[in-house]
C-alpha cells in the first residue's frame, strides 16, 4: 500500500502547484502521512470531518444563485467574504484577509462559468483556505459562533459596521445554518442559542426629510436647470417618484404601454417591472441594470397607481420631447441607456442648491431623490387616504406602511389636546 502511486486532478496548474508545495512542506516538517490516502495527517483530518465552512458556504451561494436577485447574490457573497476568512484554523503562511476575499469574490463564490482564471497567488490563497477552513460542525461551539458575530460587527477596515449591514450578514449566517439543520449537520440552529443582541436599525422615515408640496414643486422646477441635458431628461422621472410614489428602479423601467395619459384629468400607471441597479458580477445579463419583477410581487404581478393631472402633463411633455427607447422605456439617456443612481444623485444635489435655502441644503430635507417617494406617501396618509389604499399604490403591506411612516403621520395634536382639555374641564 505504502509504495502505491497516487494522483489527484486540479482545475488549474496553479492549484496543482500549491498542493505540491503543501506536500513538500509537510515532508520538510516531518509530518506523518496516511498510508491509505497518501495525505499528510493535517490534510486528512480536514477530509474526514464533514464539509468545511468554505465548502458549505460555496454550495449555499451556488444553490441559491438561479432563484436570487442580483442584490441578494451580492448580500450573500459579502456576508461570506466576512465569515469564511475568520472561520479558519491557525496555520503558517496565512494569506492576508484581502487576498482571501479576492479569491472568494472572483472565483469561489461565483458559478463556474463566471470565474476568473486563478493567478499563482490566488491559487496559493485558495489552497491555504481549503486546508484551514473549519469543519461546518464546529459552528456548534458557542466560541466559534461568537467569532463569526464579532467579524460581522466590523467593516473590512475594522471600523464598527452599520446596523443594517450587521443585520443583513447575521441573517445570511442564520439562513445558512438553517440549511445545515435541514441536512442533519445540526439538530437545531446553533445561532439561536447565542445570547447576542442584534443592533437596532432605523426602519422609520425621518419627518425632517419630507418636503411639503410647495417645496417639492420648487425642487422639480429646478431639476431642468441642472446640466445641459441630463437634468431636463430626469425631471419627469423625479416627478413620478413624488406624484406616484414610484421607486427609482420602477421609474427606470416605466414604459409607454404602462401609461394612460389623457389630455385632461387623472391618468393611470400600471407597473409591470422594475430595473434595479447592481454590480455586473451579480446580474444575469452581466449588465448594471436589468429588468425584473416588482419588489414584493410575484412574477407578472402588476401594481396600479392613479396619477394626478400635473404628472400626466409632465409625462406627455417628456414623451413628446424625448420619445422612448426601442423597448418602450420612457426614461433613458440620450443613447438609450439607463441613468445610474450616481447620476440621479448628482443632479438632485445641484437641484437642491438651486431650490432650497442654504440652511435647508445643509439639512436632511429631501437629501436623496428617494425622499420624494417618502414625501408622496406621507402626503397621501395625511390627506386622509385610507392606509390600505396608500399601501396598494405604494407597493407596501399595510403593517409595513404604518410602521415605516409612523413619524410622518400628522397626529392632529391640537385636536387631541383640545379633547383632553374638554375632558379635564368636566
From TrEMBL:
Residues 205-418 form the Tyr recombinase domain. Transmembrane segments: none annotated. Keywords: DNA recombination. Residues 279-298 are annotated as: Disordered. Pfam families: Phage_integrase. This is Tyrosine-type recombinase/integrase. It comes from Nonomuraea helvata.
Amino acid at each position: 500500500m505504502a509504495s502505491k502511486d497516487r494522483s489527484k486532478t486540479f482545475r488549474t496548474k496553479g492549484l496543482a502547484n500549491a498542493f505540491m508545495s503543501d506536500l513538500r512542506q509537510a515532508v520538510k516538517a516531518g509530518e506523518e502521512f496516511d498510508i491509505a490516502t497518501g495525505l499528510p495527517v493535517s490534510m486528512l483530518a480536514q477530509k474526514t470531518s464533514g464539509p468545511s465552512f468554505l465548502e458549505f458556504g460555496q454550495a449555499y451561494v451556488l444553490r441559491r444563485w438561479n432563484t436570487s436577485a442580483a442584490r441578494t447574490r451580492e448580500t450573500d457573497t459579502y456576508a461570506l467574504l466576512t465569515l469564511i476568512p475568520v472561520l479558519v484554523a491557525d496555520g503558517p503562511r496565512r494569506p492576508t484577509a484581502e487576498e482571501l476575499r479576492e479569491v472568494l469574490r472572483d472565483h469561489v463564490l461565483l458559478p463556474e462559468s463566471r470565474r476568473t482564471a486563478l493567478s499563482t497567488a490566488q491559487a496559493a490563497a485558495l489552497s491555504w483556505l481549503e486546508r484551514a477552513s473549519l469543519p461546518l460542525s464546529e459552528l456548534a461551539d458557542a466560541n466559534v459562533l461568537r467569532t463569526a458575530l464579532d467579524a460581522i460587527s466590523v467593516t473590512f477596515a475594522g471600523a464598527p459596521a452599520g446596523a443594517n449591514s450587521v443585520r443583513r450578514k447575521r441573517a445570511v449566517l442564520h439562513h445558512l445554518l438553517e440549511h445545515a439543520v435541514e441536512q442533519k449537520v445540526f439538530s437545531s440552529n446553533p445561532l439561536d442559542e447565542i445570547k447576542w443582541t442584534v443592533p437596532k436599525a432605523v426602519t422609520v422615515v425621518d419627518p425632517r426629510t419630507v418636503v411639503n408640496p410647495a417645496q417639492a414643486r420648487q425642487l422639480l422646477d429646478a431639476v431642468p436647470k441642472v446640466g445641459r441635458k441630463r437634468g431636463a431628461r430626469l425631471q419627469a422621472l423625479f416627478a413620478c417618484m413624488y406624484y406616484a410614489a414610484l421607486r427609482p428602479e420602477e421609474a427606470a423601467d416605466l414604459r409607454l404601454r404602462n401609461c394612460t395619459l389623457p389630455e385632461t384629468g387623472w391618468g393611470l400607471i400600471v407597473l409591470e417591472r422594475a430595473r434595479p441597479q447592481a454590480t455586473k458580477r451579480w446580474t444575469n445579463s452581466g449588465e448594471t441594470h436589468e429588468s425584473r419583477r416588482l419588489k414584493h410581487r410575484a412574477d407578472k404581478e402588476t401594481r396600479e397607481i392613479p396619477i394626478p393631472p400635473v404628472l400626466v402633463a409632465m409625462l406627455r411633455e417628456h414623451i413628446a420631447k424625448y420619445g422612448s427607447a426601442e423597448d418602450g422605456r420612457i426614461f433613458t439617456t440620450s443613447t438609450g441607456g439607463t441613468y445610474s443612481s450616481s447620476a440621479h444623485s448628482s443632479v438632485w444635489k445641484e437641484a437642491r442648491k438651486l431650490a432650497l435655502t442654504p440652511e435647508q441644503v445643509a439639512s436632511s430635507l429631501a437629501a436623496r431623490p428617494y425622499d420624494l417617494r417618502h414625501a408622496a406617501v406621507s402626503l397621501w396618509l395625511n390627506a386622509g387616504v385610507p392606509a390600505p389604499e396608500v399601501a396598494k399604490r405604494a407597493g407596501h403591506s399595510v403593517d409595513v406602511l404604518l410602521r415605516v411612516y409612523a413619524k410622518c403621520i400628522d397626529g392632529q395634536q391640537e385636536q387631541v389636546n383640545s379633547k383632553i382639555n374638554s375632558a379635564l374641564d368636566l
